[in-house]
């Protein structure tokens, strides 16, 4: 996977991505990262990349031409026209399915806006995907780009080792992960669940699955619609909901 980031703050991208698991993957050559400073494509005396908006209103807008030239330079280097993700709160909300899908690409370009955004005309010409990371407003697209690159990286073969591997984690099958415990066996008077100490693997798997269903029903009931539960598990969810409703009524 080759990540290309168009930004006014390339050092922010480099510092973030060269750390931890993504940093290790870059060192190993499983990922490449190129942070392109859009300012390097502002061919005017003061390397100015922003200007006032036509029609008035608050703030400055990033101009079309430097963004366009920065993208064309990537297209030339890669000898293709890779997908361009524009990070914007007006985009489709990012999720695990999008991460999985984008991880299939060879090259991905992330376009990070600042100020009040970017001139619409260059967006029309180069952007293929408008993506948001959630319903709140940030000061720029750099953190969202790093959030996306982090989750996409995890889907690239070899980036995670076996221990870190994503088979049974949260969102696999639209269920949250079960609770986990390490040493000591007792901490602050709390014991590790008995079944986990039993060495009985079938029982452990059964317990973990039930915990996943319980957690998802409790914390993210919206996810259950997409989870594939057995009839028995759906009955369990109905029983839990009934129980929680009764408990709620008692506290009123
Ligand atoms: Cl992608 N950009 C900005 N500026 N704010 C956001 C966002 C993106 N996603 C959520 N908030």
Radius of gyration: 23 Å
Give the H and E element order: EHHEEEHEHEHEHEEHHH
Query: Helix/strand-derived class?
Result: alpha/beta
Strand content: 15-25%
Low-confidence stretches: none
Shape: elongated
Small-molecule binders here are: 6-chloroguanine
Instruction: Please tell me the overall pLDDT.
Output: 96
Q: Biggest sheet, open or closed, and with what strands and sense? A: 5 strands, parallel
Strand order of the largest sheet: 2-1-6-5-7
Number of helices: 9
Helix and strand topology:
Elements: E1 2-7, H1 10-17, H2 20-28, E2 32-37, E3 50-52, E4 60-62, H3 64-78, E5 83-93, H4 96-102, E6 107-112, H5 120-126, E7 129-132, H6 142-153, E8 186-187, E9 190-191, H7 201-219, H8 221-224, H9 231-250
Parallel strand pairs: 1-2, 1-6, 5-6, 5-7
Antiparallel strand pairs: 3-4, 8-9
Helix pairs in contact: 1-6, 3-5, 4-6, 7-9
Bound molecules: 6-chloroguanine.
6-chloroguanine binds at residues 87-89, 132-134, 136-138, 140-141, 144.
What keywords describe this structure?
5-stranded parallel β-sheet, alpha/beta, two-stranded antiparallel sheet, 252 residues
């Amino acid at each position: 996977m080759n990540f290309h980031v168009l930004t006014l703050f390339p050092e922010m991208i480099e510092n973030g991505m060269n750390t931890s698991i993504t940093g290790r993957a870059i060192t190993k050559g499983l990922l490449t990262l190129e942070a392109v400073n859009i300012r390097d494509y502002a061919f005017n005396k003061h390397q100015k990349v922003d200007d006032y908006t036509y029609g008035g209103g608050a703030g400055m807008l990033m101009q079309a031409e430097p963004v366009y030239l920065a993208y064309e330079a990537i297209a030339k280097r890669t000898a293709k026209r890779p997908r361009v993700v524009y990070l914007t709160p007006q985009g489709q909300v990012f999720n695990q399915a999008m991460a999985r899908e984008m991880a299939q690409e060879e090259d991905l370009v992330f376009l990070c806006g600042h100020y009040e955004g970017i001139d619409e005309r260059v967006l029309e010409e180069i952007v293929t995907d408008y993506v948001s990371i959630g319903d709140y407003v940030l000061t720029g697209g750099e953190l969202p780009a790093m959030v996306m690159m982090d989750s996409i990286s995890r889907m690239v073969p070899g980036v995670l080792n076996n221990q870190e591997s994503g088979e049974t984690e949260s969102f696999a099958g639209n269920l949250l992960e079960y609770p986990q415990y390490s040493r000591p066996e007792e901490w602050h008077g709390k014991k590790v669940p008995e079944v986990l100490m039993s060495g009985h693997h079938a029982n452990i798997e059964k317990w973990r699955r039930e915990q996943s269903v319980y957690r998802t029903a409790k914390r993210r009931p919206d996810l259950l619609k997409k989870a594939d539960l057995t009839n028995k598990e759906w009955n369990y969810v109905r029983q839990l909901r009934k129980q929680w409703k009764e408990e709620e009524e008692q506290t009123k």
